[in-house]
From TrEMBL:
SMART domains: START
One BP term from GO: cholesterol import
Keyword Transport part of the UniProt annotation: yes
The protein, known as: STAR5 protein
Job description of the protein: May be involved in the intracellular transport of sterols or other lipids. May bind cholesterol or other sterols.
Amino acid sequence: EAMDYAALAEAAAEKLELYRRDPSGWRGCRRTGEVAVSCRASAEFAGNVYRGEGIVAASPQAVWECIKPVAGGLRTKWDENVKDFEVVEAVSDTISVCRTTTPSAFMRIISPREFVDVVLIKQYEDGTMLSAATNVEHPLCPAHPNFVRGFNYPCGCFCIPLPGEPDRTQLLTFFQTDLGGYLPQTVVDSFFPASIAGFYSNLSKAVKALKV
């Protein structure tokens, strides 16, 4: 039975649009100069969905160039939580099945992970770009003995232009990940807010480097 990757990707994008529009229930869990992180219980699995919101000092094009989920993209260079990213199958021009591996993290308490997701890219009329993803299975990606298989539930990034401010971009991110394995909940609950803060910090540095 083949998975309907396109339908799963569209459903993930719709979930993210709902998260974006629904302000209720989020509670702040971390704030830095670059991002406000909040979370609430996930309706998808027994963990949290995390929301990151910040302004990046670069054009939407530059920010998108750094985060877009493409083979050979910049994400593996600046995002310390992405070791390798490969496109397993191009489903359409805007939808692909991808495999991401992550290095060990949190002082090696979290061992390397792998994630297999269907990823959708969408552009809105106002210039907002969305990258949305959710976990899938794929015949070319059986479980790998060197990695713990983790599962992303609807997650992604909105790259939102700010009217009249061409060199600033609102970046709204949603992370909703079951890391798998046997991790204490306290580790998971500490890891994500710190990881999201690091994501915004490293992205800010990456877009500066891109402008030079």
